[in-house]
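Hey L., structure's done. Input below.
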Amino acid sequence: MEKPALPAQIIATFFGVGHFPVASGTAATAAGLGVVFVLHHATFLYLAVLVALFGLGVMASSHLARVLKNPDPGVVVIDEVVGIMIAFVGVPLSWPSAICGFFLFRAFDMFKIYPLNRFEALPGGWGVMMDDVMAGLYTNIVLSVAVRWSGI
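Output:
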């Protein structure tokens, strides 16, 4: 069996977070939320990192999916990082919004409400990444409405 390339492993597992023994997707979402807190104040940098992580994530997850012969390997968690970052694009960041966004994103990611579930069928890394992109978009919409309505 071909061994995965180290750069692809580092990116796809988000620096090893994907190897977390329990709930690696939740751990990656928390790590992604850390990225959100660090970069949220710098809009251009935030968006640049988000786009870069998405592109690298598609390539790295495609590579790991092919090498591991699994269309969505559990160790691939870059999709959760990108998804939670999308959840906070244009959303005011506070501890209440962060907590709500975290749980909303995890719910949308796990339950895959239609049409989000259709994106998993895309080939390679596109399928791995796009369902979480959509979960992030769903979260962003709900969170934007909630923040506007409640003022959190």
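The radius of gyration is 15 Å. The CA atoms of residues 40 and 95 lie 13 Å apart.

-- N.
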